[in-house]
Design goal:
528 residues; five-stranded mixed beta sheet; alpha/beta; six-stranded mixed beta sheet; Nucleotidyltransferase, domain 5; flat; Taq DNA Polymerase, Chain T, domain 4
């Protein structure tokens, strides 16, 4: 069985691989995976000759002096950490576990992180995920930003480096997980209404870390949690298990919440797209100063995942907890479990916020960039809920222009496809077909079936060929001489702009639509 024992002084780090890569015939961590791990992740602090590298099926004891173990791959994680058997590597990656005084950190396989595609899965019979017919898939959706379950393959290297950085911090700290400069959190589950109201109304000019849980159907507020210091976290139910008010004076609690939000800066993860929208639209609680840790995470690392779970794994030493939520809300135990889950979201978000603020001070211009994003939250909420003022004539003119452009792009594409080509496409379509340039199904038939172009992406849901999102750009890179592809891309760009012109009109306090046409000209107001 392959194993790379440390040739230099052992630093206390063991790397456990689920299986050898397709290049590992003499040594483990060879080829590009080994170079990525050694040069980009370990160095300059350490190198692979100071590390014990073994396979998950190697039953020999860990070397004396082992302080940290990196578990590379889901099989290795499940082999060493029985408690993770119901979780994926995407969920648990970056979560630290302490077993017999040794810190274990699951992460991705280095060779998977180095490959631009899942070559190991498709080409390596020794891979635990080996599927000979594996192929690339097109992402159907971005994923749930509240969970930490989906990581794009292109970002594996980033997260691998992040996890190795954690392992190096453990080594530098004598084999122990570094501690926070904050007290341990104290969760106040279902506190009295008086306590909630007094705390919310007593603070001003502070950060108010906030999270809420709603039902799926009508976005009814089930509970919320908040903290002003990151230490005392109040977990407050609004509805009980019977969907009755959890407090007789719950309306006073909502009033106190509105006051707390008005007097402080509310901090939430994905608040701009969810929490703040629900509070403003459904509960008429206006949002003033606000901070969204998801937007801040995006400003720090624009290309990587920004869910709270990913943020927790990068910025904190907390374990993955996004699977601890109750699956329902129909009994007292489930209510308590959801309150605990909501409170833990607040605490981990507090840690993420503190870490981002500290990091932003070290990067020139980053704090200014984050501040710019935060300043846009309130205008975004106002236009989303209240609507915007616009000149209908100008919008109508732009829409008509886009209509003409789209028809011309489609007409030129049809001319290049030819009458016979489109007849073949039409014969394979049931019902009334859409315009050729705007129909992914017709494009798939033309490019893959009629022209024989290799499939560049597949839908994760159906497994069928896909020519949506980035797939058409991949096709364009492979077939630069085909002008039909460029016409379709031009059509879709205009189509996207066309769809963005369906504005929500501004309404006054009585709910009447404010028509902005020529009446503002006399006042010198220039409308967009």
């Amino acid at each position: 069985m392959l194993r790379n024992k440390p040739r230099l002084g052992y630093v206390g780090l063991t790397v456990v691989l689920s299986n050898p890569s397709r290049f590992d015939t003499i040594n483990l961590l060879s080829a590009t995976g080994g170079s990525l791990f050694n040069d980009w992740c370990l160095r300059p602090d350490y190198n692979v000759m100071q590390v014990d590298i073994r396979l998950a099926d190697d039953a020999t004891p860990l070397l004396p002096g082992t302080k940290c173990v990196l578990l590379c791959g889901e099989y290795a994680m499940h082999k060493y950490l029985k408690e993770t058997h119901n979780n994926t590597i995407n969920e648990m990656r970056g979560s630290p576990f302490v077993v017999d005084g040794i810190v274990y950190i699951p992460t991705f396989v280095p060779q998977d992180a180095a490959d631009i595609k899942f070559y190991e899965q498709a080409s390596n019979p020794l891979s635990k995920d080996y599927q000979p017919d594996a192929t690339d898939y097109e992402d159907d959706e971005e994923g749930d930003v509240k969970r930490h379950g989906k990581t794009a393959h292109r970002n594996y290297a980033f997260w691998l480096r992040s996890d190795v950085s954690k392992a190096k911090q453990v080594l530098a700290n004598g084999g122990k997980i570094p501690s926070y400069p904050f007290p341990e959190p104290k969760y106040h589950i279902w506190p009295s209404s008086k306590v909630v109201i007094d705390v919310l109304q007593s603070k001003s000019n502070c950060f108010l870390w906030f999270d809420m849980e709603t039902d799926f159907e009508e976005q009814n507020l089930q509970c919320f949690s908040f903290s002003f210091d990151g230490c005392n976290i109040y977990c407050v139910p609004i509805l009980n298990e019977n969907y009755k008010p959890a407090y007789t004076n719950y309306h006073h609690i909502l009033r106190a919440l509105a006051i707390g939000i008005r007097q402080n800066t509310i901090v939430a993860h994905n608040g701009a797209a969810f929490d703040f929208q629900i509070l403003g639209f459904k509960y008429r609680i206006p949002i003033g100063k606000s901070y969204d840790t998801m937007l801040a995470m995006h400003r720090c690392f624009p290309d990587v995942e920004k869910s709270l779970g990913h943020g927790i794994s990068y910025w904190t030493w907390e374990k993955f907890h996004k699977d601890e939520d109750a699956q329902a809300y129909v009994n007292k135990d489930q209510v308590i479990k959801r309150l605990q889950y909501c409170g833990k979201d607040v605490y981990t978000m507090f840690l993420v916020h503190q870490a981002i603020e500290k990091y932003a001070k070290k990067i020139p211009g980053l704090q200014s960039s984050i501040d710019t994003a935060m300043s846009a939250i309130r205008p975004y909420l106002i236009t989303s809920i209240q609507g915007i003022r616009y000149t209908p004539e100008k919008v109508s003119k732009l829409i008509n222009e886009n209509d003409r452009l789209m028809m011309q792009y489609n007409r030129l594409a049809m001319l290049l496809v030819g009458e016979k080509g489109y007849t073949d496409i039409r014969n394979r379509i049931k019902g009334k077909p859409k315009l050729f340039a705007g129909s992914s199904k017709q494009c798939i038939i033309y490019f893959h079936d009629l022209l024989g172009y290799p499939v560049v992406a597949r839908s994760k849901k159906s497994g069928e060929p896909s020519l949506s999102k980035g797939a058409m750009y991949k096709l364009a890179l492979s077939h630069e001489d085909n002008p039909v592809i460029q016409l379709i891309l031009a059509y879709r760009r205009v189509q996207k702009e066309y769809g963005a012109m369906n504005f929500l009109p501004w309404k006054d306090d009585d709910g009447n639509i404010v028509k902005e046409q020529n009446e503002n000209k006399n006042e010198g107001t220039k409308l967009p």
